[in-house]
Every structure is written in structure tokens, then in C-alpha cells.
Amino acid sequence: MKVAGGTVQVSKLSLLQGYRRVEQANLQSLMSEALRRVRITEALQYCYMPSGDWETDASPASYQPKDAIGFHILAGGSCWIEFDGRRTTLHEGDITAFPFSSAHFIGAGAGGQIFDPGGALPPQPWSETPILRFGDSDRVVRFLCGYVRCEAMHFLPFREALPEFIHVSTEGDWLNGVVSQIVQEVDDPHSGGMAILERLTEIVLLEVLRRQLSAEPNRTTGWLAAIRDPIVGKCLQLIHRDPLCPWTLKDLKNEVGASRSVLSERFQNILGTGPISYMRDWRLFLAREQLLQGDQAISSIAFEAGYSSEAAFNRAFVRANGMPPAAFRAHQRKSA
């Protein structure tokens, strides 16, 4: 900073550093907000131990919900995974996830037997994690396979920030210790072990998603790019910090120091929506969470979501979730 003739002059470097500090603060705040909502609402996992040369069509089974995140944790051995025509070698400790339940194959060697672990699962509920062994070779691969469901996947900007296929190596990493603990829970089950296993899987999922969300700094569109934008990111921070505030476009543009046209254009270019539409979608997502978590009256939830009438809230909720709030709450409780 220089002072010349009584005027404060700020260097371009200082401005750039200031923008980066704001960007980093926005990123950490909104990332924490998103990950706080990555809570497992349903999970299924089993141990799969094929041996020799083999292949498995690991596409989502009929029992897997369409909105679930499928995963494989390679606890022992090595193999390959094929997605979208490309094969990737997996090593012990590797974790793969499919946020959109995309079709894929796993296997070892070539021309081996076709194994179907999903078809060999025992009826639920399970008191212990099923262990499914296939083949008689001493060259064994060991997976923890399954799926998890989490509410964050129902918020479109977060969902669109994720790729179809995620691959994380845990070599020399603290996550490797979590994988080892998962194996121990499977091998030496104790009372309450299924709940512990679910929590450990939740930790793995959180860390995998956090790394994925932090790994693409050069994106120019989508939620991650919006977080990093000095104007849109600040606006998102305001909306997420105080979603019940009756924000108007005028309020938001005054807070971020931009004109209406600039704010709206930046939102549209990066997120494909406007600030007020984004705020409405976020409130509807929060309303969805409230319906799942308690017995609050729907009229009260509608008011908090910014709707002047329960009927207007019902119409918006149906557009976003395919059914009215009361039916949604009843359906979720019945399937829990």
C-alpha cells in the first residue's frame, strides 16, 4: 500500500491476495455446509472375496435405490475396474465411488469366471456383515462393496459438482487406517458392530467427497466455480448463512457490491440459474430435511421456506421432489 498526495493506492498484488482470502473463506465455509449434510440415511455393505481370474458386472442391483452412491473399498489384493470403456488398476486401500450409480465392471485377469455377489446375498436384516467367497484360487481379492444414501445428493448444485466416477488412493494416508478398521470390524464382529461399520463408511465417504470437491480448482461453471467467484461466492455465503432472511435481489447486490445485472449474469453463467431461484431451491432442500427429521407442521415449514401459503409450498415441493410434502414425509417414514 502506498500513499501519494493523500490518496491510498492499493497494489494489484494486494487486491489479488484479498480476493484469494475471500475465495478461501467462501470455499471452506460452503464446503463445510455441504459436507455437514452428507449424513448417511441408508446403507448396505457386504464383503466380497473373489479369487483367481474373474469378472463381475457391478452395475447397480435392483435392490439399490436410484439415488444411492455405490462404492467399492479394496481391502486386499489388486484388480481392475472398467467404467465408460476405460480400465483402471486398483490396489489395496483404493476406494472407488459412483455418485450416480453408473454401470461398471470389476475383475482380475482375463477370461475368468463370471461372479454375481449381489445374487448370493442372504435375506436382510443382517446381524453381521455378509462375507461372500467365490472361486478356489489362493489369489484372492477382498472388497467391501455396497451403497449409501445421503440427503446432500438431493441438492442439485452439489450433485452436479460430482463426477460419475471417483477413485481415491489411500496409500500412506490416514484413510488407510480407517479401511483397516473396517476390515477388523468385518473379521471380528461385536455387538453394535454394524452401526460402527456404518459410521466408518460415513467417514470414508465424507473424506472422498471432500477431496473430490477440492480437487478441481480450474472449473469455470458449477457449484465449485461459484464458491470461488468473488461475487457469486459471497452471495452464496449470505444465502447459506441466513437462509430464512427475506433476501431480495437488491439486498444481495448491495451486500456483494455489484449491480443487479452483473450479479444475475454471473449467477447465470456459472450456475445456470439466478440468485433468487438458487435461494428458493436451497430453502426447498432445507424444507425437505425438516420433513425427514421431525414433526414440525407443514404450514410452519412452508412459512420458513418463504412461501405465503401452504398451497404454494406444496406446488413447489411437488416440482422438486415429485410428491406433496405430506406424502413425502409418510413415504420416507414407511421406508425407513
Automatic annotation (TrEMBL):
Domain HTH araC/xylS-type: from-to ranges: 233-331
Any one Gene Ontology molecular-function term assigned to this protein's record: DNA-binding transcription factor activity
Keywords carried by this UniProt record: Activator, DNA-binding, Transcription, Transcription regulation
One Pfam family matching this protein: Cupin_6
DNA-binding as UniProt keyword: yes
Alphabetized Gene3D superfamilies for the sequence: Homeodomain-like
SMART domains linked to this entry: HTH_ARAC (SM00342)
Top-level taxon of the source organism: Bacteria
Stored PANTHER family: ARAC FAMILY TRANSCRIPTIONAL REGULATOR, HTH-TYPE TRANSCRIPTIONAL ACTIVATOR RHAS-RELATED
Name this polypeptide is given: AraC family transcriptional regulator
